[in-house]
Request: fold
Amino acid sequence: MGFADINNCIKTLNRILLQKYDDMKGDIAMDPFIAFDCPHCQKLLRAGTKLVGTKGKCPNCGKEITVPEEDSVSNNDAKESEDN
Ligand SMILES: [Zn+2]
Reply:
């Protein structure tokens, strides 16, 4: 009985991990990205639109950031995106 429980746990865990991996791949492949400046170091960052409102760490300065809503940057779409 105990073994079955453990095996079930492992199977469930593997399935969750695989699903998460698939979700991540889906995000990268299908979802548009939001570009925004880190409020701490002003580094230009990108995050999938699904991550709006979630907190993360700036890869540049390591401080906590929150992914802003798409609306706050969508105006930039009209402008030249390859400005830099
Ligand atoms: Zn930063």
In short: The mean pLDDT is 78. The pocket of zinc ion is lined by residues 38, 40-41, 43, 58, 60-61, 63 (CB under 6 Å). The CA atoms of residues 36 and 45 lie 5 Å apart.
